[in-house]
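Data availability (excerpt). All sequences and predicted token strings are deposited with the supplementary files. A representative entry, Binding-protein-dependent transport system inner membrane component, is shown inline so that the format can be inspected without opening the archive.
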Amino acid sequence: MSIGKSLPSVRSASAERTGGVPPVPQPSAGRAVHKRVASGRRAEMLAPFVLVAPAVLILVLLRLYPLLLGVNFSFTGDGDRDGAMVGFDNYVDLLRDPLFQGALRNVGLLVLLLPVAVAIPGLLATFIYLRVPGHRFYRSVYFFPAVLSPVIVGAIFNLLLSFDGPVNSILGAFGIGPVDWLGDPDVAMFAVVGVHVWATFGMALVVFLAGFATLDSALLDAARVDGASLTQVIWHVIIPSLTRTIQFVFVTTMIGMLTSMFGLLYVMTSGGPEGSTYLPEYYIWIQQGQMNRPALASAASTVLFVIMLVVGLLQLKLLRRAGRED
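Structure token line:
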């Protein structure tokens, strides 16, 4: 039989198998592969958003939404005007309050002392990275204060810094008169900040050590071959290489100094003497917990948030500019 005569019989057989309906042509294999690739690309593009969505939702519900509520509440009144909109009256009262003015001055002092609070763990981390004798022991000792409660730290230093305490006894052995560390308005804030730095620099030390893990050791070897001193190595090699780490430590240390000193202030000075150790967070607690003025406390919280935001952005800008110049 010829080929031409066999084709009609094949078509009729196919029609019989499908009930008399001609078979529908299937999509090509190339089109199916293209659809699978496009679907995979869409899934790949959506994956980051799906992974980030729970964290964003938590931040919005537990951070952003309460922040907006607090800002809105700061424009309402206290006492007889409870719940009524009062505009910027609370902010005007804040600026007129001597205690809040003192708290803002102390914030300026903290900003000035911030480079010292960052430099201390940075230098200690440098010595540990350079493996000075006993570096493993020092790493454990330096981190130990970070695990202590601020209440315990405050109680310990209340004893050490008391007028007849061990610190003044040591100073007396060198012919230096006793210092009223916690009773002198000109000294108390420096004492509390010093204790806070001692108690918290262990966390910054860990961050710096993590940053050193990314440092190219070839740069240090090249600097040693060129005869660079330790100061030159730190200034021209280590600091430029750890710019991002330094930025992170600056911001986190600043936030810690402005929002995590309540325990020390409460135990060591209770805001005294003469209100000289007030900080915004302690002022907020006084207004909310003792004076029953939640709207004024919300206004103070809003001011504290703005201060942290502005100072943090300025620090990042300055550090980035310094990094580009290096």
